[in-house]
User: Fold MOSC domain-containing protein YiiM from Aquitalea magnusonii.
Amino acid sequence: MSDSLTLHSINLATVSPMLIEGRRIMSGINKLPVSTLLRPTAITLGKLGLAGDEQADPTVHGGLAKAIYAYPLEHYPFWEQACQQHGSRHAGTTLHHGMLGENLTISGLLEQDAYVGDVLEFADCRLQITEPRQPCFKFQAHMDMRLAVKLMAQSGHCGFYLAVLQSGTLRAGESCRILPGPRQLSIAEAFRRRLRRLD
Assistant:
């Protein structure tokens, strides 16, 4: 594992309606890049998340412990192939950053190497890894794949939530240092344990 990662994009969304099985559900999952490697705009980061980003259900994403959701760019080919195999409306397209509902699209830190308590130190802010993402029915609808939740569970490609230890600004293209915490529980293992509890 590397001791640094790269931030490829920062992705935001406002809450908007989704139609799921005939029901109108509010969601902030449809995140779009606002700071990219080509246009590395600085985005303000506060204790509750990024300026301009909204969450519809703070029990799932939001609050101090889940202010930010990060997802590895390395997993995008898996989802592009899954969309193709399972007849998603996204089949045959290159998925844009933020498509998995993440605020930060990163590379260099996968779930098996990310530990609860590790700190990501950027130039102007610090974030701490807190827990894995638990996929839900909104993710399944957004991906237009009936098996999306199952595929995330089977693959372990869940990404992770972060708490904001130090507010500041972030921009795409930044590298950050990974400062080790206790290293007792990886995100991959935390995800497996959570799935076992749900069985």
